[in-house]
Structures are given as C-alpha cells and as structure tokens.
C-alpha cells in the first residue's frame, strides 16, 4: 500500500544471520585452519597425473572454501572475514615453527644429516607457499564471501545454490591466479605452458569440486541454521 508521500512502504527484509555463540562456528574454524596448514605443506610438492599438473594440496583446499561458504551464509561477511584472518594467522605461525625446526642444530651423524636434508626439502619452501596462500586466500575468499552475502541481501533465503555457485566462480579464479603465480616456481614450474596448465587445472578442479558439493553444502547450511539459536537475529 503506498505511503502518504507516494512511495511504497514495502521493502526487502534484511538478510538473516546468526551470531557467534554456539560451538558450530568454532568447530568449522578449527577445521578450516587445519585444512589450510596441511594444504600449504602439500602444495610444496608438484604433482603430475597424466597431462594434469597440480600440487599435493589439491584435494584439501576446496574444503576450506566450502567451509567459508557455510560461514558466510550462516554468520555473515564480518564473521567469515574473521575466520579467514584467524586461519591464516595460525598458518603463518605454523610456517614460523617450520623455520625454527629447520634452523635448530641437529645431529651431525649420517642419519641426522639425511633427516635435516629431508626436513628442509619438505618444509623449506612452505613460507613462500604460505605467502602465496595468504594473498590468494585473503583475496579470493573475501571476494567469495562478499559476493555471497550481497546476493543473499537480494534473494533472502531463496536461491542458496545460485549464491554458492556464483560466488565460488569469482573467488576461486582470483585465488587460483594469485596462488599459482607465486607457487609455480617453488614447485618447479618454469615455462608458460606448464604454468597455464597449473592455473586452469587448479581453477577448474576447485570450482568443479565446489559445484559437486553444492547439494551437501546446502544440507549443511540448512542443518546449522536450524540449530543456531540466534539465526535470524544478527545483522550482517
């Protein structure tokens, strides 16, 4: 019904979110941090599967984005951003621990020397991988979360699948391009053809995994929304 001034009194309801208070957010944050730390270690190894060039963390990283989608949808952009920053602060701390482990004096016998070389080979490149992941994930996941929440402001509780898929395409592309640019030389990729393969495979794979898991993500989001006492109370 029009108002006295002639404008409509109808307006879109504000998107609904939950506040942090239940254990669900803490559990998801812990899983995200562990996944990022493990994927940073795995990413220091180049992997070749037939014509596909990727890294050892390829099967882990999409999990972090799926968790980011769930947190953005349920808790909003500010909370999701806090989870991103916290996860990477812990990842940087892990990288610092690797550096300390490497520089600590070890045994000088043959076994000790071989062990030192193995640790340096496995953990030595990780700080550069963390740097790439930090820039890539902060940019990609922040864009992913922002787009998802902006889409939710327009659609409300409807079209969750569209929010998940639309935000993932943009976020994963930004993430993959930044990360691969920094990580390529660390894992031994030096020519443009291999680099392009690395970027395209990473983007297509990560996006395909997220699309494949959209039905599961939707179920998880719905499950958490029903069990979050504050869902629908907090603002973005």
Kindly report how far apart the N and C termini lie: 28 Å
Count of discrete alpha- or pi-helical segments spanning 4 or more residues: 8
- Mean pLDDT comes to 85
Q: Percent of residues in helical segments?
A: 55-70%
Major sheet summary line: 2 strands, antiparallel
The secondary-structure class comes to mainly alpha
Q: Topology as H/E string?
A: HEEHHHHHHH
Explain the overall architecture.
The chain has helices at 23-42, 61-75, 77-103, 110-123, 126-155, 160-183, 192-212, 214-227, and strands at residues 46-49, 52-55. It is globular. The chain starts with 22 loop residues before the first helix and ends in a 9-residue tail after the last helix. It contains eight helices and two strands; from the N terminus they run H-E-E-H-H-H-H-H-H-H. By secondary structure, the chain is mostly helical. 70% of the residues lie in helices and 3% in strands.
């Amino acid at each position: 019904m029009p108002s006295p001034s002639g404008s409509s009194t109808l307006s879109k309801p504000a998107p609904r979110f939950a506040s942090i208070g239940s254990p669900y957010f803490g559990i998801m944050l812990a899983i995200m941090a562990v996944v990022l730390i493990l994927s940073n270690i795995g990413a220091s190894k180049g992997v070749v599967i037939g014509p596909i060039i990727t890294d050892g963390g390829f099967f882990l990283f999409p999990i972090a984005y799926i968790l980011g989608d769930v947190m953005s949808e349920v808790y909003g952009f500010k909370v999701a951003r806090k989870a991103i920053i916290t996860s990477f602060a812990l990842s940087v701390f892990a990288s610092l621990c690797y550096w300390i482990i490497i520089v600590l004096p070890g045994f000088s016998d043959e076994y000790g020397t071989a062990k030192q070389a193995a640790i340096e080979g496995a953990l030595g490149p990780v700080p550069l991988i963390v740097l790439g992941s930090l820039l890539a994930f902060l940019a990609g996941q922040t864009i992913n979360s922002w787009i998802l929440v902006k889409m939710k402001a327009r659609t409300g509780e409807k079209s969750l699948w569209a929010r998940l898929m639309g935000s993932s395409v943009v976020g994963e592309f930004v993430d993959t391009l930044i990360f691969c640019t920094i990580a390529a030389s660390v894992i031994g990729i030096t020519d443009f053809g291999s680099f392009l393969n690395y970027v395209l495979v990473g983007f297509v794979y990560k996006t395909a995994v997220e699309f494949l898991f959209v039905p599961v993500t939707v179920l998880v989001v719905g499950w958490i929304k029903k069990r979050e006492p504050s869902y629908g109370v907090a603002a973005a």
